[in-house]
Each structure stands twice: as structure tokens, then as C-alpha cells.
Amino acid sequence: MKLEFSGSPAITAPRARVWERLMDPQFVSQSAPGVESVETIDPNHFKVVSGFGVGAIKVKFKMDVELFDVTVPERAKMRARGKAPGSAMDVISSMELIEEAVDRTRLNWTATSNVSGTVASVGARLLEGTARKLTEQFWTDFAKRVSAE
Length: 149
Description:
- The chain is an alpha+beta fold.
- It has one domain (2-148): START domain (Alpha-D-Glucose-1,6-Bisphosphate, Chain A, domain 4, 2-Layer Sandwich), CATH 3.30.530.
- It contains four helices and eight strands, in the order ββααββββββαα.
- Strands 1, 2, 3, 4, 5, 6, 7 and 8 form an eight-stranded antiparallel β-sheet that branches.
- β4 and β5 (57-71) form a beta hairpin.
- The longest helix is centred in the last third of the chain and has 25 residues, at 124-148.
- It is globular.
- The model has no long low-confidence stretch (mean pLDDT 94).
């Protein structure tokens, strides 16, 4: 099942600070619903364990995450691949930071996910809504936390 999302939150912070926080896996994980652990392999590779529920189906994905096409402090892409018992997920996300003013940054992002297995078949009707809610929750929380610093 293919899912596509995008957004463009305005963050009240300089682009350099938004970039710094976006590249900090511990900071990012604190905004990500369901993230249980993040292990940094190197500055561009991470192992992530994340759980979420779709209706009555609860899954825990073990993900390999890679940053690529990184242009500091303007843009980056992220690829995440993971498995849970009976399910798999592949995500490609792109992020672009636009400096609108000295203390205001626009973060344009897109994400395309391919989900297969039990979570896609059993929770198909609920999956898109759940994924959209979790994605929007992440970006809203991330923007608030960076703006509050």
C-alpha cells in the first residue's frame, strides 16, 4: 500500500538551528510518536525501533535509516527500511529548508511510504488516517520544540 504525504510548516527559528535539530537523531526521535530507541551508526546511518497501532493491530518496526543527498543547511533526503513480524515498510522523505527571515524558516517536506504485509492488509482502511495523524503530529511537535528554544 502506497502512502504519500507532504507539508510546509513555518518554524520560528533561524535556518541553522532548524537544520541542526533536524540532523540530531535524539532530538528528532523525541518528536516522533512511537519511537522506542535510536542507535547512531554514523552521522548518516541509524537503527530505529518504532511501534504504532492501526486499529487492533500493533506493530514494532526495526528500521534502517539513511540520510543522503545532503546539502548543509538546505536539504536532505532520508530512506528508511524496516520490518515487523509479518509486515514491511519503505519510506523516502525529502526535506528542504527555506530561510524566510532571520528567525523564520519554512520546512518543505514530502514522504512516500510503501507498506506491505499484515499491517497493510488488515489495517488498510485505517492505515492512511493513522499514518497521516502520526506524521502531522511529528512535524507539529518538531516545529514547536525548535521554535521554543
